[in-house]
Structures are given as C-alpha cells and as structure tokens.
Design brief:
This protein is mainly α and 89 residues long. Helices cover 42% and strands 9% of the residues.
C-alpha cells in the first residue's frame, strides 16, 4: 500500500527542520521492494526521526551493533509526517 502512495506523491520542503522526514521517506522508498528486516549497516538512517520512540521497538542489538528494524522505522517516519504541519511540505 505504501509503494503507490510514495510513487504518486511529490514531497518537498524549504524548511530544513523537515528535511529529516524527507530523508526518511527517501530511505523507505529505496528499500520498499527489498525483503530485508533491517536496513543495511552502510545506509545512513536519519536517527533524529527515532527520538522519543523506545529503542526497544526500532533497534535490534546483537554482537555490539545496532540494526534498525525496517518496519518500525517506516512507522516512525509516517508518524512524523502525519504530525508535520500541512504548510511544511
């Protein structure tokens, strides 16, 4: 359901405060067709989108590394987008 929405919408902002949300949406779109449970370690994830969200939900800690759970990151980004004022985008 998310893929046709992201392919249809053209989001942009001139306000740098909302740039992380756009970065998050770009990351989501990049990996939407991938069956990964986690984002690759090499991917730059805008972690500021995950603040105020329990790390237990979006992080999987194994062997001293933190992996970002794809499903929960998507939910966090969509929640931030929902709460952003309409004139932000």
């Amino acid at each position: 359901m998310l893929k046709p929405i992201l392919e249809t919408l053209a989001l942009r902002t001139s306000n740098p405060v909302y740039a992380p949300i756009l970065d998050g949406l770009i990351t989501i779109q990049k990996y939407l067709d991938k069956k990964y449970s986690y984002y690759p370690d090499t991917e730059k994830i805008p972690l500021e989108l995950l603040k105020n969200t329990s790390e237990e939900l979006w992080a999987d800690k194994k062997n001293g590394t933190i992996r970002i759970v794809k499903h929960y990151f998507e939910l966090c980004v969509l929640q931030k987008l929902e709460k952003a004022p309409g004139e932000a985008f």
